Every structure is written in structure tokens, then in C-alpha cells.
């Protein structure tokens, strides 16, 4: 594979996932090497390597988000247990983002 093609693929993955191009390039080259070791047909290796890298990076991103979310929950729990005042919404209108979304049919019926 030509380096211009690799550069394009790496830049595209970096833009889509938000990871630095250096990290994406390293992961892409590793995935390409893993796949090419056992491959009989090499025509689709760039595609499969790109898909593998995107999946790995999204998984890593999801895991870090989960860890951040759980640490935020732990901090909130600690505040509640320590007696620190927790802010609650002033009115039910402040909780509108917590209400379930209505389907189009229910929205149409409500407007009629």
C-alpha cells in the first residue's frame, strides 16, 4: 500500500474518531501487520485494517467514558453520603430533558 493512501486513511480515521493521527497510524500499522500475516488475498487488507482500528478506538473511547462516568457517580455518591448539599431542580420544568420522548404520532395527536 502506498504511503499516500495510508496517510489518507489515517487522517480520515483520526478526524472521525478524534484521536491524534500518531495514535491512529500506530494502531493502523499494527492492525495491517496482524491481518497481512495470515492473509492470502491482500486486496481488502486496508479496508479490514481500517475497520479494526476504528472499532478498537471506539471501544477505547467508550471504556474511558464509562470510567469517567462511574468516577463522577462515585463523587456524587460521596457528596451525598458526606452530607454535602446536592442541587435539585427548582421546578418540574427544569427536568424536561428527563421526560421520555414522544413518538411522531403522539406529537401529532397532541398538536391536533
Automatic annotation (TrEMBL):
UniProt xrefs under Pfam families: DUF3562
Positions of region (Disordered): 83-112
InterPro entries xref list: DUF3562
Protein name: DUF3562 domain-containing protein
Taxonomic lineage from the root: Bacteria, Pseudomonadati, Pseudomonadota, Betaproteobacteria, Burkholderiales
Amino acid at each position: 500500500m502506498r504511503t499516500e493512501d495510508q496517510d489518507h486513511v489515517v487522517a480520515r480515521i483520526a478526524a472521525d474518531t478524534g484521536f491524534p493521527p500518531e495514535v491512529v497510524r500506530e494502531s493502523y500499522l499494527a492492525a495491517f501487520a496482524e491481518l497481512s500475516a495470515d492473509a492470502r488475498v491482500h486486496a481488502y487488507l486496508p479496508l479490514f485494517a481500517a475497520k479494526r482500528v476504528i472499532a478498537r478506538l471506539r471501544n477505547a473511547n467508550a471504556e474511558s467514558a464509562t470510567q469517567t462516568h462511574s468516577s463522577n457517580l462515585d463523587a456524587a455518591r460521596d457528596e451525598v453520603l458526606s452530607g454535602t448539599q446536592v442541587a435539585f431542580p427548582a421546578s418540574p420544568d427544569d427536568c424536561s430533558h428527563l421526560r421520555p420522548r414522544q413518538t411522531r404520532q403522539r406529537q401529532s395527536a397532541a398538536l391536533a
